[in-house]
């Protein structure tokens, strides 16, 4: 496992494209200046040792050196030992609605992005709980099994979108049924399921049946509502630009609304609570308090220990490439010139 100590130094890599642009401008200025001085044939005779490619090679070596020096400042570390540690926590599964209605922009920037931010902020508040992620629309799909790897969870979370499932609609019952398979630790007494949705459901009355089965297995269901009760249209975008609004079979614009009453019913039946997700800070704080009140179960988890610094290798390579840049002259290399690799042989 790789760990990065000082990620802030990655911003230094922003200098590289600036240096490339400056180099190109300098080369253009040099070419124009030479053309004003003499024609191409005369310049070739006056400067027979000038290489057309060495300046580019020097820039490449210089940029490579800066890149490795930057990586050295970031200080990558490699975990050299995997050990088992005892942790206490709750098993938490997040079921996130990725149906098209989650594209509605009645809550900024849209319902889905708001949902992802809420889950990300909740994860930031966790210490040793295990988490899993489910995506659902017309069907439910496992995204991430129960794990303590919060970094992986956030990576999967950010990649979620409304195009990941071909079956559209909102089948909350399937999400609940899939979540029941996530809790594979029979000794874990505290099992929590968070359903993040606008409350639209196309599974008929089977959702409440699924909730009852889940509660029988000791799962508490919390619901988080995203959106506004007054509703909003669903924009269809291409390259970030709204092309049209989604319409129904009659050609009328579809208005999707937050159904808080249904989400509250699910939470009541699931021995949980309904949380309005409009205010991220308040919602996360409420969830944090709820989780703190739950009993924690001790479980074993494997994690990397004894991380070793690797910065010296990157600094060494960086200094090597900078040294090669200094040693590389812009005139032609004699032995390479004989090989004529770049078709630069002089015409007599």
UniProtKB/TrEMBL annotation:
InterPro entries reported in the protein's UniProt record: UPF0353/GerABKA_families, VWF_A, vWFA_dom_sf
Residue ranges crossing the lipid bilayer per the database entry: 6-26, 55-74
Provenance organism: Pricia mediterranea
Keywords on record: Cell membrane, Membrane, Transmembrane, Transmembrane helix
Record-linked PROSITE patterns: VWFA (PS50234)
Residues of the VWFA domain: 91-270
Superkingdom classification of source: Bacteria
Protein name in UniProt: VWA domain-containing protein
Record SUPFAM superfamilies: vWA-like (SSF53300)
């Amino acid at each position: 496992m790789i760990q990065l100590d000082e990620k802030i130094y990655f911003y230094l890599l922003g200098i590289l494209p600036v240096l490339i642009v400056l180099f190109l401008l300098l080369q253009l200025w040099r070419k124009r200046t030479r053309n004003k001085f003499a024609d191409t044939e005369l310049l070739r005779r006056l400067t027979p040792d000038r290489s057309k490619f060495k300046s580019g090679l020097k820039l490449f070596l210089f940029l490579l050196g800066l890149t490795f020096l930057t990586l050295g400042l970031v200080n990558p570390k490699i975990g050299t030992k995997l050990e088992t540690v005892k942790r206490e926590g709750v098993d938490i599964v997040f079921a996130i609605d990725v149906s098209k209605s989650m594209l509605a922009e009645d809550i900024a920037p849209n319902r889905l992005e708001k949902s992802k931010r809420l889950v990300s902020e909740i994860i930031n508040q966790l210490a040793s709980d295990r988490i899993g992620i489910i995506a659902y629309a017309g069907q439910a799909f496992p995204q991430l099994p129960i794990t303590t790897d919060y970094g992986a969870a956030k990576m999967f979370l950010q990649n979620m979108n409304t195009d990941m499932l071909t079956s559209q609609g909102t089948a909350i019952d399937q999400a609940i049924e899939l979540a029941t398979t996530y809790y594979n630790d029979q000794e874990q007494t505290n099992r929590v399921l968070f359903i993040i949705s606008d409350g639209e459901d196309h599974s008929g009355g089977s959702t409440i049946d699924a909730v009852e089965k889940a509660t029988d297995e000791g799962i508490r269901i919390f619901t988080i509502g995203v959106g506004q009760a007054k509703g909003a249209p669903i924009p269809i975008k291409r390259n970030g630009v709204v092309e049209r609004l989604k319409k129904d079979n009659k050609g009328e614009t579809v208005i999707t609304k937050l159904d808080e009453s249904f989400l509250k019913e699910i939470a009541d039946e699931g021995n949980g609570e309904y949380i309005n997700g409009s205010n991220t800070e308040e919602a996360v704080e409420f969830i944090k308090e709820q989780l703190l009140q739950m009993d924690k179960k001790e479980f074993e988890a494997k994690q990397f220990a004894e991380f070793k610094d690797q910065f010296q290798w990157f600094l060494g390579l960086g200094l090597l490439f900078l040294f090669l840049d200094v040693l590389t002259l812009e005139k032609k290399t004699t032995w390479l010139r004989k090989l004529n690799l770049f078709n630069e042989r002089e015409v007599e």
